[in-house]
Protein 1
Amino acid sequence: MNRAVFRMVGVLVVAAMVAVGCGGGGGGASGDVDLSDADLVVGSKDFTEQLILGYITLQALENAGANVEDQVGLAGTDAARQALVGGDIDMYWEYTGTIWINHLGNTKPIPDSKKQYEAAAKADMEQENLKLLEPAPFNNTYALAIREEAAEDVGVEKLSDLKTLVEENPDEATVCVESEFNSRDDGLPGLEKEYGFQFPKGNVALFDTGTVYQRTDKGDPCNFGEVFTTDGRIEALGLTAIEDDKNFFPKYNPALEVRKETFDQYGPQLEEIFTPIAKALDAKTMTEMNARVDVDGELPEDVAEDFLSEKGFVE
């Protein structure tokens, strides 16, 4: 190898290293994947985290050349699930615990995140022909929260303490929840059964998600409120999530769930795009994105676009 050729090889090696370094997210940009022949429909549920995940999916697919129909922001869990099973959408992000308990009818969660994912993925493919892609590391489980100034007054540090509160001071045992949490087996009915108490009749108030946080922060009409653990409003409002000392709430790691017919056509491309995206969605990242929407008032689609760009998933 003469000197000119040696220098040229060196330049190409350096250029390749720079190109790899620009990726930033530990995986390739979705623009490197060709989905120009794909017509896909992306859905999501209707709360902030789901809207962000939906727009991340939609924008990544569009960057790969796909023609994407926007069905982000469907009504709650049941509506999104029915749309996927019925073929009205091709994919949305679902949580492993929700699949296992709410959709497949199991009564006991699996405490280990990896085993919970594997069991949910296997069963949902066998029963519903749905393919669960790699999960994100963050766990957006349920919790009951209380404003800091009230926590000491009512003497509740862990969920087991609620039984004593209900027995000795029932007027203080008030809780704000969404209608979905009020009826799910992995929500309030299951929690009361597991911990052996029941909130007094008339002490359970139903609101939408945003109002639950506001009312819990004000202590009116409830001392306790249902929260999602990756919601940015917990820290912003100074709320404290109460310890689930019996590990009642399941693991809720999200993963993009895809109809088998769609996966059979585009599986390798979808895994190439979304495996690195899922790995980049840790708890800190997701909580910060949720706070930008719920606390700072930014649009979910703008937050999604920033995530994809900053991590190098779109150019």
Protein 2
Amino acid sequence: MLESLRHIFVMLELELRRVKHDRMELYSRAVQPILWIAVFGPVMSGVRGIPTGGIPYTDYITPGVLIQSTTFTSIFFGLIMVWERESGILKRLYVTPASRYATVIGRSLSAGVRAIFQALIILPVALLIGVKFASNALYLITAFLIIFFASGGFASLSILIASFVKTRERFMGIGAALTFPLFFVSNALYPVNMMPPILQRSAAFNPLSYTVDAVRSLLITGNISNLPIDVVAITIFDAVMFSSASACLGKIVE
């Protein structure tokens, strides 16, 4: 157990070293969500056609846009695995004493490290724009933990896809096909009850919906009555994705 934890932390350290040497990627990825908050939010606030429960629309979408940004980064995490397979790095990692589970969980949670750094860039900018956050340090820390672990689940989904897709071009196509349905069939930009019934049922199986709901309740509304359900849904999603990606990890090397 302790050995597996050590291997997981080694993978996290590897990602921290990458972030340290390539900060420009984090800054560039933060541009799009900042534009959503600074431009799209104020424009749609004037429409006043979306029921947000009395919350300004820009405040309402800030958690959704933040999660969209970190999720999209995690969904394409498998590209790194495909590149590492092509360059031979993955084969070297595969013969280390680290188990498949430790390798997948460590690599997946390393995507959560990037997500935390992205959040640390986006949230202060949102504050400057005028978004009002709940003033509770414990809620803020919990929101960051949820972003960290949810990003790990989506990165595991990405590793699972990379197990079956052998080229970067195919992976990019599948990743792009997944991201927008995940985003738009969720509560990131509007309440789920505004959608047609079939999309409402789809949103109930979308892990992004639970992640956005949890982070919105912690950062904006302060109403955490649904938080236990959100945490259970994210935990189940992570457990399924970690197990599936670990079982299929060997296919990436083949």
Protein 3
Amino acid sequence: MRQLAAENCPHSYLKYTQRKVLTISLLALLTVALGIYAINAGAADLSPTQVLLTLLGKGEERLSIIVWNIRLPRVLAAITAGVGLSVAGCVMQNILRNPLASPFTLGVSQGAAFGAAVAILALGAGSTHSTSTDAVIINNPYLVTVFAFAGAMATTLIVLFLAQVRGVTPEAMVLAGVALGSLFSAATIILQFFASDVQVASIVFWTFGDVGRASWRELEIMAAVTGASLLYFLANRWNYNALDGGEETAKGLGVDVERLRLTTMFLASLVTAVAVSFLGIIGFIGLVGPQLMRRVLGGDHRFLLPAASVAGGLLLLASDTLARTIISPVVLPVGAITSFMGAPLFLYLLSRGYGKK
């Protein structure tokens, strides 16, 4: 049947889709290559041979600690968080019909950060230390994730209320996201006001965003949530394409728009909450990844969703590798690198107009 369908497709269409698949495959290969380089790079200079032997269980004990406990979890956390934030931004832009929508610009990341800060500082889910390498240790990642999710969902529900009930324009929606982000940032500052000096220093360091603080335990949770959400998004790729034609068109094609919108925003908020609760605020990946791929491959979600996922992982991994190596041995906050990358794109999209996707 598949062979018969392929024979009936015009050659130009097959070539068109093959080009998209090839682009996604090349991005995936580039991510793997950069991941290998990122494991090698760092203050303890390792050769590719040493890394390979260590991964095969034949390396020295000192190298095993560096590779298995520090660098490999860091690389995988960057890819996983990048995939989650980018695909969350991609579906938010579709559901809200707003090219500027992303977990960071809508204030969802700031809401999740406030919830995580409440759990860590007020409920004792995290212990604080004065060293820069382990400023916050999360003792109960599940409690932190639940509170981060509550903060993210509070922001999401307000945005949905404004979009559905009040019928605000895409421009006003972005402004509402900026206002909500400022509100939750102010609430986090109030928490810091009542904290000790060490706690203040620790929580400020935590909000910078750092993929290096994820261990295998946090990585497993992030991978499970991101993987399950990505499967749902991919299963609804045709529904997202229908929604691109307008809400009435999607309903005419049999799409349950309200259910799709709520479930999508729920899962996008969950993915964001998990990433922020473990890694801190990492801005603009959810904006840059989807927008970059939309311009290269177009708006067909059959290809845009996997492309945005791979691009998000690659962008965050590249940002973290740059943050670790540009003035080594000093490690810059990866959130600052992604903001340098995303802010110009945000201004570019503003200059082009909200309505253009």
